[in-house]
Design goal:
The protein has 197 residues and is of the alpha+beta class. It has a single domain, classed as Aminopeptidase. Helices cover 28% and strands 23% of the residues. It has a five-stranded antiparallel beta sheet with strand order 1-2-3-4-5, sandwiched between helices. Strands 6-8-7 form a three-stranded antiparallel beta sheet. A hairpin with an 8-residue loop joins strand 3 and strand 4. Helix 1 crosses helix 3.
């Protein structure tokens, strides 16, 4: 698949580049990434280079994962990353700590969902996050996913294991309004989580 960009009211989703390496390395060194993400830990600048030159580039070339940088403008600094594993429609996302709480991720996720349905035959987009990642769960809820329970995560962790995960799904023809039935997280820890599997 040839990489393509997406635009929303406030955001541009385009390709991560080597110019983003320092921001990626800084964001992914956030301690919450150790608990909620599958990124290497501790995260280094070399990991960020490998992400750009290997993971992102190979994912597009092999049409197995589409990955975008989240920016405020075409040449703006990277705010976070979002992607979809194309064969099975699993979305994943994260924002740098200083960019959370501005409603950016639901906006970016909606654009990725639209592109996935428009450009593939996938009938259902999937989402999951490690238990406790309340921020990621709230994004999925706002984007209209229905809660499908606690299950072993399909996205393998650093050790190859499957973490207990909150899961959700959004069908091609589903209403995008928030659905009832999500866990009550008023007492849950994890409000500072970066978002994604």
């Amino acid at each position: 698949m040839t990489p393509f960009s997406l635009r929303t009211a406030r955001l541009v989703l385009n390709q991560p580049t080597l110019a983003d390496v320092d921001d990626i390395a800084r964001y992914c060194a956030d301690p919450v990434f150790e608990h909620y993400m599958t990124t290497p830990w501790p995260y280094t600048r070399d990991d960020a280079v490998g992400f750009i030159e290997g993971y992102v580039a190979d994912g597009w070339a092999e049409d197995r994962e589409w990955t975008w940088a989240i920016r405020d403008s075409d040449a703006g600094p990277l705010r976070g990353v979002i992607g979809v594993r194309v064969p099975w429609g699993m979305v994943g996302y994260w924002l740098g700590a200083e960019h959370r709480g501005r409603g950016l991720m639901p906006e970016a996720l909606d654009a990725v969902i639209d592109a996935t349905f428009a450009r593939t035959a996938i009938d259902e987009v999937l989402w999951e996050c490690v238990l406790g990642n309340v921020a990621s769960m709230r994004v999925a809820q706002k984007s209209g996913f229905r809660y499908t329970g606690v299950q072993p995560g399909q996205v393998r962790g650093r050790d190859g294991g499957q973490s207990a995960s909150w899961t959700g799904a959004l069908g091609r023809d589903d209403d995008r309004s928030p659905k009832p039935g999500w866990p009550d997280t008023q007492d849950a820890v994890g409000h500072a989580a970066p978002h994604a599997p």
